[in-house]
Amino acid sequence: MTTEQEKYVIEVEGLKTQFGDFVVHENLDLKVRQSEIIGVVGGSGTGKSVLMRAIIGLKKPSAGSVHIFGEDYYQADEQTRVGIEQRWGVLFQGGALFSSMTVAQNVMAPIREHMDMGTLLAQDIAALKISMSGLPEEAGAKYPSELSGGMKKRAGLARALALDPEIVFLDEPTAGLDPIGAAKFDELIVNLKESLGLTVFMVTHDLDTLHSTCDRVAVLAEKRVIACGPLDEVRRNDHPWIQEYFSGPRGRAALAS
Ligand SMILES: Nc1ncnc2c1ncn2[C@@H]1O[C@H](COP(=O)(O)OP(=O)(O)OP(=O)(O)O)[C@@H](O)[C@H]1O
């Protein structure tokens, strides 16, 4: 019986990715449920970002499949793929904002690209997304170079939310933020999930973020997902990397708080 809990919006099966002869993932499986926040962790170079890129169509797998909303993304026709892409938003590391555009213009870019909408309405929607991302109204008129690191992340999030996505992909959203800024960003993500029912796929190194936001954690090692489940369950796994990560001094401090 399929319950709402078991409805998967992302299903990665038998994934293999490689750059030339260098294999990043082999036989990797991962399923993401609707309206959950899943945190993807793993040592540096284990392929967290490449996994995210494989799911969003930026790194074609050499084997395996990626189903999004039940559709086989890489086998789908162009129209289906574009339809799927409009249902997700992505926040890349550093925000990846267009530097020659204001924040509002950045947020309007996907709206203008994908929706047939007049400028005034697009401006109103951009203003709403900017406010949802916790930026003051006047931030809309600023250029990325005039923003702090935390504001850039929020602006990137506003753009990721532009098309009312069902899934957002976040690549290390709290990297480079001070602890207070990072905690506020965590809170924002949880609020968005709760108010909009968003599914969040988040690559992170941040133990505090994992602890305060994620419903489940997926651990990448040995080219695949070696453990996936609630944090309390995963941290009991006796894989050496997991033990070192969660039971080292930083892990203990984050989990004790
Ligand atoms: N465009 C590319 N060409 C060749 N190799 C690449 C490319 N992109 C990534 N790789 C390699 O794939 C592996 C996984 O990279 P990825 O960026 O996914 O790691 P990561 O787990 O996100 O690491 P980090 O935590 O350090 O950001 C690394 O060995 C990296 O060098």
Automatic annotation (TrEMBL):
Q: Name one GO molecular function term.
A: ATP binding
List UniProt keywords, sorted A-Z.
ATP-binding, Nucleotide-binding, Transport
Q: Which residues form the ABC transporter domain?
A: 10-247
- InterPro entries the UniProt entry points to: AAA+_ATPase (IPR003593), ABC_transporter-like_ATP-bd (IPR003439), ABC_transporter-like_CS (IPR017871), P-loop_NTPase (IPR027417)
Q: Signal peptide: which range, if any?
A: none
Concerning Gene3D superfamilies, the annotation shows:
P-loop containing nucleotide triphosphate hydrolases
Q: Which CDD domains match?
A: ABC_Org_Solvent_Resistant
Q: Which PROSITE patterns match?
A: ABC_TRANSPORTER_1, ABC_TRANSPORTER_2
Q: Which Pfam families match?
A: ABC_tran
- Please name the SUPFAM superfamilies in this protein's record: P-loop containing nucleoside triphosphate hydrolases
Mind telling me which PANTHER family this protein's record contains? PROTEIN TRIGALACTOSYLDIACYLGLYCEROL 3, CHLOROPLASTIC
Q: What name appears for this protein in its UniProt entry?
A: ABC transporter ATP-binding protein
Q: Which organism is it from?
A: Hyphococcus lacteus
Instruction: List the taxonomic lineage.
Output: Bacteria, Pseudomonadati, Pseudomonadota, Alphaproteobacteria, Parvularculales
